Amino acid sequence: MTEIMHVPVVVVGAGPVGLTVANLLGQDGIDVVVLERNATTVDHPRAIVLDDEGARTLQAFGAADEFLPHTIEGDGARYFDDSGHCFGTVGAGPRTYGFAKRHFMYQPELEAELVKSLERFPSVDLRFGWNVTGINQDVSGVTIACMTPEGERTIRCDWLLACDGGRSPIRQWLGIEFVGSTYEQDWIVLDLKADPDLVNYSRFYCSSTRPAVSVPAPRGGRRYEFMLLDGEVGAEMLTDASIGRLIAPYREFRKEDIIRRAIYTFHARIASRMRQGRALLLGDAAHLTPPFAGQGMNAGLRDAHNVAWKLSMLVRGLADASVLDSYDEERRKPAWAMIQLAVAMGQLVMPKGADQIALRGMLLRMLEAFPGAQDYFLQMKFKPAPRYDSGLFVDIDRQPYEASLVGQMMPQPVVKTAAGKTVRFDEILGPGFALIAQNEKDAAAIARLTHPLWQQLKPALIYLAGADKEISGVGPIIPVVTSDGFSRPLRTHRDQIVLVRPDRYVAGAFFADDEFNFADRFQQLLQNRVMERMSA
Ligand SMILES: Cc1cc2nc3c(=O)[nH]c(=O)nc-3n(C[C@H](O)[C@H](O)[C@H](O)COP(=O)(O)OP(=O)(O)OC[C@H]3O[C@@H](n4cnc5c(N)ncnc54)[C@H](O)[C@@H]3O)c2cc1C
């Protein structure tokens, strides 16, 4: 009989999501085995947009500075009608979370960077060529059967993270439904190099005859996507002749410039639950979105950041298994909202039938007369903000201030340290929890906090002072002054101490004299959630 290896966490799938969650856990020193059935990471381009939240997740384990130089910062999008008239412009948008809203990238380069990043974390064991062939879950763990280059192997783990992609065998073995719909239209995706169109924004051709999208790619490349029409057969449409015809309105066809040509069917689906016992679904295994909002991989990176710190605390004995319930509670609803956004954008780009096309034309003409409304649609102001309305937050629905940040991702201002260095705020926060004071009295208070919770969380203690303040770096507090406007929303809590979770969401805010009550409540969320709910 083969020896059974035991490990706290197994990640199945070395796509961007599996590699990201492994990096986050590895940074905390958690023992993790990553199992990937292929011999290497995927070598063809898929996701082409990394958003600001995704970049922030990479920053959390020190990979952003390495990877972002391989990307190009996006300058939004332009929308064109049948006559070639640009009826809508989306700008680059603010850097609220510390990074450009869009970075155009190649997914294989991101995956290579994530693999390289893992080399820094000896507790992570990445195994290529390990195909998971079955799982068996019981009350104390999960047994995983694998076919490996050396034959059959079995691994036993306490927690299984299924990052095994849209067809997720694990989701199917768990019997979790994948609800939603599949698009009738297939699309051709063409990745080209040496493209003459070097603008760093996306172009949406909202054509009534052939909807198409073109997106910048690093190093002078560009991706073109064309909707297939009824009756068009995928394989025939991938020939040089067909591609030449499709691309003709946009550029010259040169076979040697084609990096990849493929047909894709788009889906809008979500798992009916993201946790089942000791198994959790992340990334495409949990949700699939049409690519119009560039959110597929980014939604998965959010899953990774959301679950990693909870699992890390659980494995280190600092939280109960019930914290993992908050993963589904926090992530499923926003993930579905993001899918709906992509579906809505798809309807704008590819309306069905003459009626919808006419309606879209009318709507767009009307919007031009109302710049405010046009702005709302085209700047995607309906895009769901990074916020949760329930989960591991203290008093999320009973905040004294209307503009409270509790439940929201904290903005990431650029700050200046006592040594005069200018950095993004998260560099000061570090990878774990942080307590932020915004006045001298609270700065003194966070140096004296006594509740045992703080011993467990070991938060970074930060004094975020106004730009006009003199600061000096003495004691346990790290003082910084703001040097851009993105800290303004934090001023809502200027008389409170703000607790930020490792995934950069604001867990709660409290007045210094309410420390014990607040800390008790948060500790209950981590370690006694059921009791808290029953007594609520
Ligand atoms: C044409 C196209 C364009 C896209 N554009 C964007 C975009 O602009 N922005 C964006 O955010 N997203 C985009 N996406 C989506 C993005 O590529 C996916 O969301 C992302 O790859 C999902 O990552 P993942 O790690 O969840 O899954 P995957 O990348 O699919 O990785 C899953 C891994 O699990 C492995 N695996 C599966 N089964 C097993 C098993 N039994 N044992 C071991 N290993 C297993 C697979 O081999 C694979 O390596 C696009 C997708 C497509 C197809």
Structure write-up:
This protein has 536 residues and is α+β, with helices and mostly antiparallel strands. Helix content is 30%, strand content 27%. The protein contains 16 helices and 26 strands. A hairpin with a 2-residue loop joins strand 17 and strand 18. Helix 15 crosses helix 16. The longest helix is centred in the middle third of the chain and has 25 residues, at 325-349. It starts with a strand and ends with a helix. The structure holds flavin-adenine dinucleotide.
Structural class: alpha+beta
The multimeric state of the shown protein is single chain
Judging from the principal axes of the Cα atoms, what is the shape? globular
Proportion of strand residues: 25-35%
CATH topology of one domain, which one?
FAD/NAD(P)-binding domain
Helix content: 25-40%
User: Uncertain runs with pLDDT below 50, 5 residues or more?
Assistant: 529-536
Keywords: Oxidoreductase
InterPro entries: FAD-bd (IPR002938), FAD/NAD-bd_sf (IPR036188), PheA/TfdB_FAD_monoxygenase (IPR050631)
Protein name: Bifunctional 3-(3-hydroxy-phenyl)propionate/3-hydroxycinnamic acid hydroxylase
Pfam families: FAD_binding_3
